[in-house]
Automatic annotation (TrEMBL):
Name the UniProt record assigns to this protein: Glucosamine-6-phosphate deaminase
Domain of life from the UniProt record: Bacteria
Listed InterPro entries: Glc/Gal-6P_isomerase, Glucosamine6P_isomerase, Glucosamine6P_isomerase_CS, NagB/RpiA_transferase-like
Its job: Catalyzes the reversible isomerization-deamination of glucosamine 6-phosphate (GlcN6P) to form fructose 6-phosphate (Fru6P) and ammonium ion.
Amino acid sequence: MELVILDSAEDIAQRAADVVEDLLRTKPDAVLGTATGSSPLPLYDELVRRYEAGRISFKDVTGFMLDEYVGLPADHPERYSAFMETHLRSRIDMAPGALHGPDALSDDLEAACRDYEAQMARAGYCDLQILGIGTDGHIGFNEPGGALDSVTHVGVLAEQTRRDNARFFDGDLDAVPTHCLTQGLSTIMRARRLLLIATGENKAQAVAHLVDGEVSAQWPATVMQNHPDALVLVDPQAASLLRR
Ligand SMILES: N[C@@H]1[C@@H](O)[C@H](O)[C@@H](COP(=O)(O)O)O[C@@H]1O
């Protein structure tokens, strides 16, 4: 795992966009794994800028989202499918049906998970998976204590995660879903390359475990230590509890 500490979120966005641009140059029909949350937003803005400048095209790209809330109505703006549509898909030339997510509106969520995993398998899994990290060390919505070799599954959100994400629901904890569908850790690990972005002091503890800790289900992101090509981009605040 390669760790790079950069001065600001903007510098991280530039470096991360370089990684995406390099991939699209070598493989225009790449499979891109997308993350939600605030961490990748500067990256998405930079990708839109590079698309508008004619440097990159997503017209042949297929995308797979990491996760989705369960229990939000189809038109809820905080559904991750809506988030990705607003912040990335609708702003670039990616085809409308080309960004996939697990179907959290399905009557049979277990089947929806199996279908999503099969769909990713058919696509050959991701060339590059973009990741954020939860303050409790989750990636996707793989919360502490889950299996390290999980595939796409129905998950229960940790209390900490629901509190962290209440800011997207007008601060109303009761409005934050309790369940989700998420790619498993083994699904994520199948990506040829992982790119994790963490900014701000509230990520420092999770980043310290990710970089300096043992691989452990208590800090799910630590599985990335076993990935052959993982890049972690952090700002000085997120790096503030690192040993070295
Ligand atoms: N499921 C998402 C994660 O994929 C994301 O990494 C995390 C961090 O979000 P943020 O970047 O806003 O701190 O939030 C959510 O829980």
